[in-house]
Amino acid sequence: MMRRRDFMAAAAGAGIGAASGGGSARAAETSKGKAVLKLSCQEGVMAGRDLKEKLDNLEELGFAALEPHGGGLPQRVDKYKQALEGRNVKISAICAGFQGCIIGVDPDDRAKAMRTMKEILTAAGQLGSTGMIIVPAFNRAKALPHKEARVLLTGFDRWDRRKTHDPKPLLVELGEFAAQAGTRVVLEPLNRDECYFMRTLADAASMCKDVSSPGMAMMGDFWHMTWEETCDMGAFLTGGDYLHHVHMASRRTRRIPTTDGDADNYVVGFKGLKAIGYQDYVSLECGGPKDQGERKKVLANCVKLLKEQWEKA
Amino acid sequence: MMRRRDFMAAAAGAGIGAASGGGSARAAETSKGKAVLKLSCQEGVMAGRDLKEKLDNLEELGFAALEPHGGGLPQRVDKYKQALEGRNVKISAICAGFQGCIIGVDPDDRAKAMRTMKEILTAAGQLGSTGMIIVPAFNRAKALPHKEARVLLTGFDRWDRRKTHDPKPLLVELGEFAAQAGTRVVLEPLNRDECYFMRTLADAASMCKDVSSPGMAMMGDFWHMTWEETCDMGAFLTGGDYLHHVHMASRRTRRIPTTDGDADNYVVGFKGLKAIGYQDYVSLECGGPKDQGERKKVLANCVKLLKEQWEKA
Fold first, then answer.
1. Is the pLDDT of residue A128 over 50?
2. Across the interface, do A9 and B238 touch by the CB < 8 Å criterion?
3. For the whole model, what pTM was predicted?
């Protein structure tokens, strides 16, 4: 049970960013500075036949970080640590990789999600990662009804009252675990074809506000935003201090940006990232040419385009 | 069936406002000009013992419009027309007043909602109103499951495909009816205690985008936004050209602004309204002192506060 009236009223006048009241583990670092464009790339998207080649290309092309998949990450921590030694590249977010469904109808399904998420969070913390990306329920999952699921995650059944929970609301428990591991849980809204449950950045940000845990964060993916949002800038402002990761793809075919010509316009979104002083990564999650040489060329063009659009924003 | 890829891709680069592609009946008027603060007041909120006294006070206090309740409006059109004759006051939005539930489980409940909404829309058009405010389902209503309800309203079960409907998706039908009547349907997101189904401006704007009808619009209410949104400016940017009404109350106790001291800060929201070139009304929906003289004094202070904050924004 927790009353938020006084807190929220006080926060209502604070800046244009989200009224987070400590919504992120690194709020002091992330909400105050001038925004920077730090590019990241998913491991599977980067050109290269193995991790070493991928990291070589990453550095050469001007990327700042790698985004690994979370599946089996605990067994791969040492591999990444060794591969990154002496390089100017960091680990950005960890992309999912857990099993089960945190809002599944079956309690075992929920327990499996919590257990495997915590394993990955521990590994993510060891790698200094921004956070582990989670989707509460893909459409294929057998999930609880919408409102029941949200209350299970956040504990709030009313705006001014957190329902007593034993155990804790799941995202409160997970957020606390993440913060202790030195990382974050990052909610990713998807378009309705993949996750009907959470489609807009505003909804994800609202859950972060409800949870109000230092390890709780959210992200935006330009691909999904193309279909579900009406204004990229508004969406990122809504994310505010809760926003700790961004995914990027071309806006018609979900390939490497530049693939779709004029449609690949991210300037309005970048304006939003600048307005909130965004300090985390913009990371490629998209398809690309099969030929590795061709892929590297497209990635180079992509970096050029994104840097130009960042300057314009 | 309708593919939106090409349209959306083209719209993605257009300004910071919502990529509406003609989302409002008066887009040309509302999206281009410099924003203006035009204050409105619900009939029940304005000081005065009858309509004439209320309109006298409205004009004296510097309000630009009155917001009547929609119940029985068809029978009151002449009354309002006569009362407004020769005055510098207009009708802003019409607040609900329909019966039934547009996403009710019972088809009769849905049919009753559609029928009574259309009656009010016709009257709203006769009065030159901005639009009729609707809430898809208050929590007390027996409504369809979340996704089923949204598809029934908008027709989209996937982002790129409108499910074939016979009859039309309900909001498409209603939006077209509203446009022909010279007015709009205005979706109002409420906080979770009143309407769990639609809580954020982003969700309402997303429905407007899906419906893409000239008579389809949405609004924001600072009271509900206090609890459900993380950033007033982000929320209004998301509304963009779809945004055609705003409700206002003090931010702790839902009374006339100024009642709650420093909590009554609307500057960040006003920045958002200015950014989208908002041209419609900001209308008081809130409680106030029982004594009519006292109420008039508080309303005068409120007008002063809102004008000051608008200047500051």
1. yes
2. no
3. 0.91
